[in-house]
# Entry
Amino acid sequence: MEMDRIRNFCIIAHIDHGKSTLADRLLELTSTLSARDMENQVLDDMDLEKEKGITIKSHAIQMRYMYKGEEYRLNLIDTPGHVDFSYEVSRSIASCEGALLVVDASQGVQAQTISNLYMAIDHGLEIIPVLNKIDMESAQPELVTDEICDLLGCAPEDVFKVSARTGEGVPPILDAIVEKIPAPQGDPSAPLQALIFDSVFNSFRGVIAYFKVANGCVRKGDKVKFFATGMEYEVEEVGSLKMKLIPGTEVGCGDVGYIITGIKSAVEVKVGDTITHVANPCDKAIAGFEEVKPMVFAGMYPVQADKFEELRAVLEKFQLNDASFVYEPESSLALGSGFRCGFLGLLHLEIVQERLFREFDMDVITTVPNVSYKVYTMQGEVLDVHNPSGLPAPTLIDHIEEPYIRAQIISKSEFFGPIMKLCLDRRGTLVSQHYITAERVELNYDMPLSEIVFDFYDKLKTISKGYASFDYHITGYRPAKLVKLDILLNGEPADALSTLIHEDNAYTFGRKMCEKLKDLIPRQQFDIPIQAAIGAKIIARETVKQVRKDVTAKCYGGDVTRKRKLLEKQKEGKKRMRQIGTVQVPQSAFMAVLKLDS
# Structure
């Protein structure tokens, strides 16, 4: 097909504004799927996506559409809306020329709407504004249309008013995609230059890479090489992406497709890499693909120590499907060999853990999540510390810097006070505030990343009754008064529960940790002291009481010394047992730190 009849576009929006439902209607209108195959949120093919009602992976699909007697090929990429999956959105935007910006008529413009819009504008995408959910009783179409016009600088008649659930007003969007979104630019006769924007691992076919051709074309049987690794392969199969992979003979310039080259090792394919021909290579790789920056770090360890290599193989395959996930080997005194993993946020960590269990049957122990700190030593060295156990001795540290974020919160003005209090409690500094309308306010705060990692998003949703939206980006590092808080079980430090925490919050956090662990650690035959310590100073303590057999049950009367003798004998045994007794820490205790207030 000629390039001027190809359109590559994505759908961007805040979480739960109806992206996947709108994609369903577009697939129905273009008859991409038969009525028998159609289901709600058909592009969300993971069980986890359907259960949680969120999109986790961006999904590419090809549609054919007749416009004025000519057939057009529309390549759609549906994207996630949650802030933790913004890297998926950036990859989709890098491989498109246009975007549908979907806004909920009852909720209006939200923080993630603005964030995704700016990302699309930076890449030079043509934006088509769509106002969704106009059939809802709480919808305010005129008010929200004005917000969209203020944001984009467009006229009210340029905004498409639709209901993705009922299909009302959706057909004109397809015409607008053909008319407004530009055709891809490229030279079909130039050397092959194709961007890999996603990949999956198939145990029979090996690695399947999804790509967009910027210049040239790729055919079955071609010899190709990957820029980042320099590896050369023969193309076994190319084709287009529909609900299933449809094999073809070639993927032309400006088009989106998949490639199978029989690669069995997951590390040989990098998302964001460029594919070119061996015989006639292009000069340089495609630029403009952003590197992933993990925000939250946690250790992952196999439940059985002998499954370390199996976990390594599983993480390699998983990284293919989720390029924002990074890992490196590490070892722990308590948990043995495992991996230090980087995530974009706490929801991302939860989803990764769940997917490892469901898709690979791999059960892992996850340590307390924390962020990355810069430690300046007395010798003038700068160390990146992701784990409290990697912190140098206090006498060697000059100062520690922690990452700061610029948080953008949009909410109804009635929740203005409680939101400000929440941000101030989390060491936030107000940068600016302005009213978008009389009813809605936007707040910008500078805050430490460590303060929002755990339950900030949940608390924000609770105090705003679900109305507030939240988005953030890293602004840099600032000095902070941080201390290492150790948890001692039976006098032994449990390094998986250690945290780096601000000095002012250490006592409260240590107190809560001890109380929570007292409920979670099973009782043993001996007393277990649970202590929170900063260096050699104990700041909080709880005791898990021993399970005690009634050794005096068989004494029916007689002299009291008979009972005392049996109790003394039991006491000696308990003392000896405590010296050699080890404490089993359940997985729930590692995650308890996240739910301290629940």
Notes: The first helix runs from residue 19 to 29. The chain is about 25% helix and 35% strand. The first strand starts at residue 6 and ends at 13. The two ends are 57 Å apart (CA to CA).
